[in-house]
Amino acid sequence: MGPSPLRQSLSILGRPFEEWAACVLVAVIALCVCLQVFSRYVLNIGLVWTEDAAMFAMTWAVYFGAAMAVHEKFHVRMMATVMVLPYRAAWFVTFLSDLIWAAFLVFMMFYGWEYLELLWRQQTVIASMNIDAKWIQTIIVIGNGLMLYRLFEAYWFFWRGDRKGFPTVDNEEAPDL
Amino acid sequence: MSDVIIICSVFIGLMVIGVPIYAVVGFSVAIALHLADIPQTMLAQTAFTALQPFPLLSIPLFVLAGRLMEKGGMANHLIKIATSLVGAYKGSLGLVTVIACAFFAALNGSGPATTAAVGSVTIPTMIKDGYSRRFAGAVAASAGALGSLIPPSNLMVIYALVAEVSIPRMFFAGIIPGIVVTALLLVTTWFIAARNGFGGRGAAFAIGPLLKAMWDGKWAMGAPLVILGGIYAGVFTPTEAAGVAVAYALFVGLFVYKELNMESIVEALRFTALIAGLLVLITPTTAFGQVLALYNLPEKTIEFMGPIVQNKWLFLLVVGTFLILIGTFMESLAQIVLFTPVLLPAAVAAGIDPITFGIFTVLTCEIGFLTPPVGGNLFIGARLAKASIEQISIAVIPFCLAYIAGMVFVVAFPEIVVWLPNLIFGPSK
Q: Do B246 and A34 count as a contact with CB atoms less than 8 A apart?
């Protein structure tokens, strides 16, 4: 996968902003967990907020990472059955599955929003950090929206670029843990 | 029953046309919720809460630590130790690869990452020394899969969360099967190398160079002690141990081996973020588990399997074959998350304890790493060896047999698998 001739929108220093955000969030997870260990075993004080902060950073990192994974063509999907088809047919089936994916993202944004509205009627303050939980949960709408945006962008780049291969599938290495 | 058929058809249909598994599971759950008259906001809620379990944080942290250890010079030191440990045998560089992979597996939790870390050094060396590209790629790909069996292991964390078993128990249950499979891989490597006349040159074994390599690599050797020792002593939870591993990797990479710089740290963070993005797959699975329970699918599976559940060996033969087949074209994360909730109750009904079944499942995933069309290690091994996927996937078959022998070992001696965790943490309930 060569460098895209088209620059990604919403980028900072040539990279999509969610990449930087996800990197910072991963660093925050590591920092919070280390701080927790340090404070408990060295300073003998138990910090409560580190665990909450690490978990929230995790949630946001996962969704930003998932948005990254769209333009990196890194999402887990079963392509074995699709790739046996001739190129044009495979392209069309992939397009169809991406449409379904997009529909699901819209669906998640819609119900994510509805869920946030439910939360908005009440206050659930996370005591250790003194912030309202609903702000953190906005990532459901933001994350799915960002994935949808990158999905559209992938097709836009494909259309404007050399139109070779697939907009959202690498067809090569499989991501795994 | 017709509801179940609708949901299953949607699930399989979307899966087959290549919809991302995240959306496949989400859509199937949405339909199930609709059919059962449950508000869809439940899916939105689990989209957030599914990522909240604290142990889940150990995955990005182990990924980050592994990447920092690779870039920070620890992988190279482990390869040096393995080299002086092996000496001049037939296929010695292959044996070095296996041993170095086993060592690196004790530092990080990923199969593909272990192949990349060790293979990027040993594969070119093997090819230069006259080993065939196929063999060089296949050894690194298959030994790299040890990354998921020898603790820490990301797949075990996922399994433990889905199966609701203890992560430390899973980790320690992996040690003896890990050693057994390492031994089997060594025998396989030696046998193939001897038949093809690969290698056999290089310095003979001597205690002096080994001691020197071990002394030079003491910081790399110390990492598993910190990670597993902390969990063993009950000092750290797995997530805390992973956090400490990150700090340790940073310290050693920056101040001892001095091979880390800002660029490699940002690259490691970026790689970790991308792997974290894969975990979006588990966001609809909490709801998925509840839907499975709602429709009694685990019970129906046991009923469907009928007499197979009566016989432990027959059950594991059928389930093992099934999981290996699924693993050939599905990533192991998805495989564990989707099939554990359905198969584990059946395994328990067949008299297999959840920890043993976990090790068994991880072994099937490792064979999945090595089989086309979807095999993480296979692709990395092929790329590093500059050989085709087809060539490597054939060369890897004898090594897959070593993993299958490992599965037979786990099935035959489950008491040996759980012996170590029981010794450390007491008998499980």
A: yes
